[in-house]
Structures are given as C-alpha cells and as structure tokens.
Amino acid sequence: MDLIASFAASFFNQLQSPTLAFLIGGMAIAAAGSKLSIPDAVYRFIIFVLLMSIGLDGGMEIRDADLAALALPALFAILIGCICVLLGAVTLARLPGIARDDALATSGLFGAVSASTLAAGMVVLDEKAIPFEAWTPALYPFMDIPALVLAIVLATLHAQKSKGADGQYGVGQIIVDSLRGSALSALILGMVIGLLAQPGQVYEEFYETLFRGFLSILMLVMGMEAWSRLAALRRVAHWYMLYAFFAPIVHGLIGFALGWVAHEVVGLSPGGVVILAVISASNSDISGPPTLRAGIPGANPSSYIGASTSIGTPVAIALCIPLFTTLAGVVFAQ
Amino acid sequence: MDLIASFAASFFNQLQSPTLAFLIGGMAIAAAGSKLSIPDAVYRFIIFVLLMSIGLDGGMEIRDADLAALALPALFAILIGCICVLLGAVTLARLPGIARDDALATSGLFGAVSASTLAAGMVVLDEKAIPFEAWTPALYPFMDIPALVLAIVLATLHAQKSKGADGQYGVGQIIVDSLRGSALSALILGMVIGLLAQPGQVYEEFYETLFRGFLSILMLVMGMEAWSRLAALRRVAHWYMLYAFFAPIVHGLIGFALGWVAHEVVGLSPGGVVILAVISASNSDISGPPTLRAGIPGANPSSYIGASTSIGTPVAIALCIPLFTTLAGVVFAQ
Amino acid sequence: MDLIASFAASFFNQLQSPTLAFLIGGMAIAAAGSKLSIPDAVYRFIIFVLLMSIGLDGGMEIRDADLAALALPALFAILIGCICVLLGAVTLARLPGIARDDALATSGLFGAVSASTLAAGMVVLDEKAIPFEAWTPALYPFMDIPALVLAIVLATLHAQKSKGADGQYGVGQIIVDSLRGSALSALILGMVIGLLAQPGQVYEEFYETLFRGFLSILMLVMGMEAWSRLAALRRVAHWYMLYAFFAPIVHGLIGFALGWVAHEVVGLSPGGVVILAVISASNSDISGPPTLRAGIPGANPSSYIGASTSIGTPVAIALCIPLFTTLAGVVFAQ
Amino acid sequence: MFHPATKVTIIAEQLLQDKLIDAIEAAGAKGYTIVDGSGKGQHLTRASDRAVIVSDFSIIRIEAIMADDAQAHALATDVRDRFFTQQSGIVYLSQIEIIER
Amino acid sequence: MFHPATKVTIIAEQLLQDKLIDAIEAAGAKGYTIVDGSGKGQHLTRASDRAVIVSDFSIIRIEAIMADDAQAHALATDVRDRFFTQQSGIVYLSQIEIIER
Amino acid sequence: MFHPATKVTIIAEQLLQDKLIDAIEAAGAKGYTIVDGSGKGQHLTRASDRAVIVSDFSIIRIEAIMADDAQAHALATDVRDRFFTQQSGIVYLSQIEIIER
Ligand SMILES: Nc1ncnc2c1ncn2[C@@H]1O[C@H](COP(=O)(O)O)[C@@H](O)[C@H]1O
Ligand SMILES: Nc1ncnc2c1ncn2[C@@H]1O[C@H](COP(=O)(O)O)[C@@H](O)[C@H]1O
Ligand SMILES: Nc1ncnc2c1ncn2[C@@H]1O[C@H](COP(=O)(O)O)[C@@H](O)[C@H]1O
Ligand code: NA
Ligand code: NA
Ligand code: NA
C-alpha cells in the first residue's frame, strides 16, 4: 500500500523529470505528425558522445575500483542475459502464430542492453542524488553479448535453414561483431582511454557538459521512433506487444534481485543495483538489431525492432527506471 | 538630429556585435567564393537547439507570467501578421510586371516570422543588458500563422487555377501544416516541456551554453545563403528588391507602435516592445516557404525566397534590430 | 643522454595526454575493424569550430600584438614552406620508381600545414602550461600557400602534359583556391571577426568550451583514417613510407631552428617556437589535397594522401609535438 | 528467370514525397527506392548537402520498378498530370531486366 | 568509341555492402558506385536521413557497369541466389552505352 | 506524349562538379540531377558518409536527360576528352522515355 503510494508519487515525480518529458514529447509530436526530425548524423554523434562519456568516466573510476567487487555483478550480468533469452524461448516462442526465429530474435533483443536506457537511468539517479559505482556501465557488454549469442545459437541449432548464405555464423564471430558495433566500441574505447590516459579535463569540459543535453535529444528521437514504428508493429502478432510490455519489467526484477544479492555479498551500492536492474530491463536498440539481422536472417525485423523501439524502450525508461529507483528506496531503507 | 546621431552610434556599435559580424562575414566569404560550408545536418540541429532553447526558457517563464499581460500582445501579433500581408497585397501586388501569386507569397513570407532573426534580437538585447519578458517568443506563432494563412487564402480566392492538384488547401490544413513545421514544433515542444517538466538544469547546462555559439554559426549560414541567392534574385523583377528592403522596416515600425500601446496598457517592457518589433520586421525563412510552396504552387519560389533570404533577413537583422533598440532607448527614456 | 632521458620521459608523459590517446585509440579501433564512425557532417563541423576558434583567439590577440614581431616569423614561415618542397624535389623525386608528379605532390603536402596538428600542438602546450603568442596560428597560410604553389609550379614547369584540361593553372589561381578552401577561410574569417568585432563572450562561452572535446574527436577520426588508408599506401612504393616518416621530423627541426633565430632577434616566445616547429612538421590534410589534385592532376592521390594521413600526421602529432616541446625545454632553459 | 520490367524514375521536390509514394503504391508498384539529391531545371537551383534554409525544396529521386509496362506508363502520366503541370519535377521510364526472387 | 555495356544495379541493406562489393569484384567488374537511400519493398520500410535507430538496415544502391553482358547476368544471378532469397534486396540489369577512356 | 530521350550519366569527383555542370549546360541540357555517393574504380576508393579527410574526392553522380541524342553523345565525348583522360570519372548513356510536361 505504502509502496504503491510511494511508487505513484515517485512515478508522478518522474513525469517531472526532463529525461522522461523529452521521451514523451517525442512521441507526442510524432503522433501530431510534426515534421521535426533530428538529422541522422547528429543522432549518431550523440550516441557516440554519450557512450564515450560513460566509458571515460567508468575507465577513470575502475582505476581505483576493487575488481573483486566487479567480478560478481559481471557474472550476474552474464546470467541475466542468458536467463532473459531462455525465458523468451519458453514463453514467446511457444505462443500460437509466432515464428520461432522471430521469437528468438526478439528475446535476444530484450535480453541485450540499450545504451540510451542506461544513460537515462544514470541521469535519473543523478537527478535524485543517488550515488552508484561509475564502473557499473562496464556491465553492459557482459549482459549484451551473451544474450545475442545465445539467441542466435538457439536459432541456428533449431533450424538448419537459418544458416545465412554466409554459412555458419559462429559464436566467436557473433562476439567479435558485437564488440565491433559502434555502441560497444565507443564504450570500450572510452574505458581504455579513461584507464590509461588522463582525460579528466576534456571529460569535464566537454563530455560531461554535453551529456544531459544530448540525452534529452536522444530521448526525443527515441520517442519519435517509438511512435513511427507502432504502425509496423500493428501488422505483426499482438503477442509481441504483450511481451514487449512485460519482458522489461520481469527482466528488470530479475536484475534487481541478483543486484540485491551482490549488495549483500560484495556491497554493491543501492544505486548500482538500480543500474543493474535498468540494464536488465533495457532492450538493445543500436548494437543488437544488426547482429541479429545477420545471425537470424530468417527473422522479420519489423517484429523485433517494432516491439523493442515502440514498446520495450518506452516501458524500460518511463516505467522501469522509476519503478526500480523507488524499489531501491524501499528495500535499502531498512 | 540627436536621434540620428545616437542611431548612427548604436548602428556602428552594432557592427561590433559578433552576431552581426558573423552575418556580414558569411556574406563576405560567400562573395569571395569560399568553399566553406556548414553541413545541412548541423544547420538543422542548430535551428532545433535554438528554438528548443527559446521554448524551454519561455515555457519556464510563462508559469509565473500573468496571462492577461500576454493576451494583448498576442492579439496585436495576429493583427500585425494580417496587416503586413494586406500591405503587400495593395502595394507589391499592384506593381507592373509582378504576378499576383508571387506578390502574395512574398507578402506572406514577410508577414511571417523568422526564428533566426528572433534569436539574433534576443542575443543583441542580452548584449545590451536590456531585459524583456521571456514569454515574448511565444508571440511567434500568433503572427506567423495568420500571415501565411491570409496570404494563401487571398491567392486561392483570387485565382481558381491556383488550387493545387491537391484540391482545396483549407485554412485548417494551413494552420496544421505550419504547426507541424520543424521550427514551430520545436518551439512549442520546448514551451510545453518548460511548462510541465523541470528542465532548468539541462537548459542551463546545455541549451543556454550553446545558444550564442550556435547563433553565431546560424548567422554565418544566413549570410552565405543571402549572397548565394542574390544571383537568383537578380533574374526577377527589381521591385522585389525594393519591397524586400523597405517591408521589414515598415513592418517593424508597425510592430513597435503596437508594442508601445501594449507598454502603455499592460506594461509590456521596452525590451518586449523591441522583440515584438523585431518579430514583425523579420520574414520567415524556415517554416514559411514550404507552406507557401504547397499553398500557392503557382508562385515562383525564386522570387519570394530570394527576396527574403538575400535582402529581407539581412535588413531585419543588420538594420532593424539596432534601429528598434535605439528607438526604444529614445522612446522609453522619457 | 640527459636529453634522451628527458625526451623519453616527456614522450611517455605524452602517451598520457588525451590528445594523443584519442589518436592512438582511433588507430586501434580501426585496426580492430570497429564499425564506429564519426559522421562526415560532424567531422566538417568540428574542423570549422576548431579553426574558427583559433582564428577568433588569434584575431583578438593580434589587436595588441606588435606587428614587427610578427613579420620575421611570417617571413620564416614562407621560407620553410619552400625549403620543404625543394627538399622533397631533390630527395623523394630522385628515388627509383617514383613518378616526379607524385613526388612533387607529396612534397607539397608535407611542406603545407595541417590544422589538426596545429590544434593538437596548441592543446598540448596548454596542458603543459607553456605560453605562446596567440597570433602564431596566423603563420599557417604563410607556410601553407607557398608550399602548395611551389610544388604545383615545379610540376607544371617540368611536364607540359601536367597542364590539366583546364589549361594553365596559374600561381594566382592556386593562391586564391587555397584561401577559398574551407580550412583557411574559416581561420581567416575568425581572425577578421576577432580583430574587428568583440566576439570575446561567444568565444569563451562556446568555441573555447568545445575546443578540447572536438579536438579529441578529431584525433579519433585522424587515427581511424590513418589506419584505413594504410592499405592503399601499401600498394605504392615503400619510399613514401620512409619519406612520410622522416620528412615531418626534418621539417620540424628546420622550423625549430628558424624559430630559435626569431626568438633571439624579435623575442618569439619558446612556446611560439614550438608552434612554428609543429606547423613545419605538419602536413596538409584538408586544404592541400584538393588544391594539389587540381594543380597536379597527373599525380596519384593514393600515394600522397596515404603517405600524409597514414604516417605523416601520426608522426607529426605523436612524435614531433613531444620532441619539440622537450627540445624547447632544453634549449630555452639556459 | 530474367524478366523485362519498366523502371519509373521520378525526380521532384522533397515536399511532394508522401504524395508521390501514395501515387506509386496506388499504381501497383511492389516497392520503391529514394535517394536524396540536388539539381537544376526550369525552376529553382538546389544546393545539396551544404546548409539550405529551405530543405523541403531539395530534390529526391524515386525509382519504382514495375513488372507491368502499361501500369508504369499510367503511373508516369498520373504523376505528370497531378503534380508536374504546376510544380517542379520530371518523370521518365526506362526498360530494364529484373531477376525474380 | 561508344560501346554497349550492361549496368547491374543492386539495391540492398547497408549491412550487406561489403559482401556485395566482394561479389561485384569477383564477377570481374572494374568498378562500382554506391549511393545511400531509403525505400520500401516486401520487407521493412526505411527512413532516410532522419535519425534511424538502426542505420544498418538503411538502403544502399550499388551500380556496376560491366562490358561483358554474360558476366553481368552471372553477377545478378549470383547475388540473387546468395542473398536475396533470404534477405532484403533486389537486383536488375539495364543496357547502356559507355564511352571508352 | 511520351518521347524517347537520352540520359547522360556522369560519375566523377566532387571537385569537378562546377566544370561538369558548365559542360552539361553548354551542351544544351535543360537540367540535371546530382546525387552524392562513393565508389571505386581504377583510381582511389572512396568512403561515403563516414568522415573523410578529403571530401573533394568523394563521388558525385550527375544525370542529365537530353531530348537530342546527338547532343547527348557530344556531351559524353566532350566530358571524356576534357576530364576523364586525366582525372577520375566515367560517363555513360542510356535510352529512356520521357513524358512531356
Ligand atoms: N533534363 C533534366 N535532366 C535531369 N534532371 C532534371 C532535368 N530537368 C529537371 N531535372 C530535375 O528535376 C528537378 C525539377 O525540375 P524543374 O521542375 O524543371 O525545376 C530539377 O531540380 C532537377 O533535379
Ligand atoms: N519494385 C521496386 N522498385 C524499386 N525499389 C525496390 C522495389 N522493390 C524493392 N525495392 C528496394 O529494395 C529494398 C528491399 O526490398 P525488399 O527486399 O522487397 O524489402 C527496398 O527497401 C527498396 O529500396
Ligand atoms: N565499372 C564501373 N561501374 C560503376 N561505377 C564506376 C565504374 N568504374 C568507375 N566507376 C565510378 O567512377 C569513379 C571514378 O572511377 P575511376 O576514374 O576509374 O577511379 C569511381 O569512384 C566509381 O564511383
Ligand atoms: Na535486457
Ligand atoms: Na514579419
Ligand atoms: Na609542413
């Protein structure tokens, strides 16, 4: 009861958060048929700056982070990525009128991670002055890659015909491709530079300064895309909508639970737990799709991209972030 | 005499204003045949940031603005928009060798509003530390839309053949299209977010920080475009040049006069009066043309776009802004 | 010995410099086959902002710089530009299996100046808190243009067939074309605005704020390009690699020597000497190639662009900047 | 395996894009490809990727491959009649050979 | 001086670009030209220059002019067989006249 | 209503753009359409929209539709002779059917 009240409060409070306001604003103007659009070049630059910024910060922090504390959450991240995909494989894939390939691709996407949701989560925690380990974003690849790998492997095992013209699309190849994707390379490059060089000044002067602003614009883009893809989604089975709505919440709760364990065992901070939950709730919007496209050519992109951008991402950002911030407040209050 | 001296002084002083320097610089390098160019994607992003910034600021202010004070200026804005178009219809349209459609489209453009001129005016007032109500940019649509609507309606009434293949282009449609234009949607979205969410931090950290710099680059683009369109303009009747030179001044004076009334009646600040005058003097460069193109397909864009970008905008920025700032100094000194 | 130790120290220290870290990072991810890429529009915007920023700063400084002190370095810059080209003409061009046109184009490129290397040098000096005259970047055109002109003239004299379809490509034309190039126009426009207007505020608020960040991204691009062009370079004579490696060092030493003279005669600051040396060591990456392409159509771009972007620029930034900063420390310590 | 087909290429201003796509789909084309561009004709000259204040006037080039030559001609005529009598744009047809999937 | 030649035009998703280029060079084409675009077909609809979350699915249009008509047909068949049975994309041929350099 | 016409397509480096346009207009074309691209030929390989240090070498594709086939051939020959003997670029012709406005 109390939780519900406090959740309601926190949620309403969220609506005041600019981060979310821009997301909703994007949907609104897209729904209104506005011709406003953010140039693709700018969008790609924004993604780069956000991930480079997260990477630099994380890299500088990892220097004096105790790696033991990092190990368990990383292990959990891998676990979560796989569990989410398996969950999809035994639920969505079993539903009537759902092609197995499509279901596996969708599960892979929802098991993987979204950079934009991660960034949004970090800013919201900042807004609420909830501290978290700056290395938590480093968990991204540990969850993202296993999810994509598992989904593709399942699809390939199941159907021989799924083997693209490019013959076997091996596990190694999948991992390499994910790491080569623009999102992960920017994140990792940032971490390495943060770890080895002294980018402190350029980070504060430039990357940190632009972070919130760029995120606000990214949220706008996400909102516009979400709406404009709904049309495509309507054409596919309604099960996708249901899955896209509930998967982030369930995945997030799993993440939160394991995060809580990490809190008890290695003292992961409450903020860190929220980040882990948010990462789990998020679904890949940049790196995932092309990897899945190449790995499961038989799957129809309209289904998994539509489900993810139109419903999954908005739910992860607008619903899950406030949900888990509130949960943390309740759980870690004692 | 004194006024002239002080105007001369203020004008020379303006030449020192970076805002103007970039505009002239843009013309200069275009005239020199420089290959320098601002990528279109960047230009569109700059426009977005400027209008979002103006909108956010305005929205946050409107919260505690007294709406009564807003009503009269808004009414005046509508009036001015219509008067300007009618003025054009009885002057430019009557001139020898001027196609009525072209004349109406041009009047519509000069009755409408330019976001860049508005932004330039705001920065110049800042430079001179002249305060103004942050909601004044909200007057933009109140002047812009009526002007475009009236121009198109006049053209449609006058000539049946003007009815585009798309049949009747109704008033409602025109209004909707204007609001859907990238410029107005960004402005309005910004206002709504500013009104409902708390974007204060992201506004100060990001939008406000970039404002002047982006404006300087926008001025550069305006200057380059102004020069590069002169060629096209030369091919059309010289009357356009005359109109494009005097219209902004006349429209601005009308705006200033009604602004003065608003000052007396509802206490619009001197800075607010200047903004109203600058808006009136400005001519639409982003939202207007496409709307007119669709609404008056018979009109030749070279004439109205040339007149506006090559002469109208430079005059509005380089001549009218200093003129009305000085005027305000003189008029509101007493 | 001591020098070597201190150089080694300074060089290792450099590796800590974010500027360099981003350059190497760029090479690394390109080598790793990352799909990360900076949109071209953003890249062009970054170049613009960097050069405009350098120009504005320089222009504001020149106001109260004593022009006599400027004259000698400018003269030296012209000298260096020509010497470098002649050096190339008597070395590279004489080597077996090297087409004279290719050799001259390459010499021209290495005699000319790189905006990115210049910017990197300025930031590194800032990082090390070594002051330098803000007008030193004004030496850029004085070295850049003569080098390009001389290279093209030599090529044209030598081979009648080199005369492009566009007939004689006169010296005047070459100079005009260089000045019209996007890099030089931005620099010069910035200087003029800095000299005549008062862009102080927009400079500090915007251009200076973005400088380091944009440079870091530019370094990334340079690194990625360097690697991706290596392939093309491998196909041309290996002499180019040797030349591309040693030319920057030799050119830089010439620049340093003449800079030292300027220090003795007109009191050019040690920082200014380093800038002169860095400019000399740099090789043109933006303005030069198109001019050379038009001026020496017979030359094969793969050779000169490859040599410059893949080896010349990295050597100039990663090797020469620390080298000359250290040298300055040693030489001007006494 | 290879079939003759007709390619309809429409070059017009961006602000007509949606209407042209409707026309193409109405005419029974199974798909279309759009590329952005710039150009010059009887009317305006358009800049390409340098900042243009009025991007809606920039040029798009749409090509639609149609199996039925008559339908293709009908599409061309329809587009011409409805748009290019008044507004900027051209349409032309070319004979190609398509390979069935 | 003018020779007949065959132009192979391939429209596909960006993520196939490298593989398609290999196929083109393997088929013996001396060169190719790529333009970015957007479009619609049996599968996805793609946005063009407005921000698209998944740019790898955006469309590219590759044209390769080949002197040998048989090679051109072979290329088209090869590309169709290896890619477009499963993935998005089309390929078509047109007869052109090229001027030797 | 439909007339045969010849389309001249020129693919070259951006830095030739102005000269090529002059040649096209001199040859009597009523208009032209340009799209940016990338490509590979005997000379350089060009990247497309990723940052390229030297954008002047990037590729443009110009097409000009001409009513008079002889003029079109003349244009192709002229362009070839004046530019493509030395510099990067190709030009080809195709027969199309244009609808009069
Ligand atoms: N003869 C032509 N060849 C190629 N493209 C043309 C031609 N005429 C017109 N266009 C294209 O069609 C657009 C509109 O032409 P117009 O309606 O004549 O202004 C121009 O901007 C060009 O891109
Ligand atoms: N009939 C067509 N005409 C022109 N382009 C087409 C056509 N069909 C498909 N395309 C292009 O090929 C891409 C992939 O088509 P599809 O594999 O059918 O989804 C589409 O996005 C279009 O760009
Ligand atoms: N066979 C070809 N097919 C299509 N485009 C070509 C061909 N050869 C050359 N090109 C284009 O023409 C440009 C210049 O070619 P080149 O002069 O051979 O380097 C290349 O970058 C390609 O874009
Ligand atoms: Na997930
Ligand atoms: Na107006
Ligand atoms: Na040099």
Would you kindly provide a brief summary of this structure?
Chain A has 334 residues and is mainly alpha-helical.
Brief descriptors of the model:
heterohexamer; A: mainly alpha; 14 helices; D: 101 residues; alpha+beta; 4-stranded antiparallel sheet; 2 helices; 4 strands; globular; binds sodium ion
Beta-sheet strand percentage of chain D? 35-45%
Helix content of chain D: 25-40%
- Return the string of H and E elements of chain A: HHHHHHHHHHHHHH
Structure annotation, total helices of chain A: 14
Distance between the termini of chain D: 9 Å
What does this structure look like?
The complex is a heterohexamer, with three copies of chain A (334 residues) and three copies of chain D (101 residues). Chain A is mainly alpha-helical and 334 residues long. Chain A has helices at 2-15, 18-31, 40-62, 67-90, 100-111, 115-127, 139-158, 171-180, 182-196, 200-234, 239-266, 270-281, 288-295, 301-331. In chain A, helix 7 runs parallel beside helix 13 (288-295). With 101 residues, chain D is of the alpha+beta class. Chain D has two helices and four strands, in the order βαββαβ. Chain D has a four-stranded antiparallel beta sheet, covered by helices on one side. Chain D is globular, with a radius of gyration of 14 Å. The model of chain D has no long low-confidence stretch (mean pLDDT 85). Chains in contact: A-B, A-C, A-E, B-C, B-D, C-F, D-E, D-F, E-F. The B-D interface holds B 37-40, 42-44, 164-166, 221-222, 224-225, 228, 232, 285-286, 289-290, 293-294, 297-298, 300-302, 305, 309 and D 13, 15, 19, 43-45, 47, 49-57, 81-83, 85-87. Bound molecules: adenosine monophosphate (AMP) (3 copies) and sodium ion (3 copies).
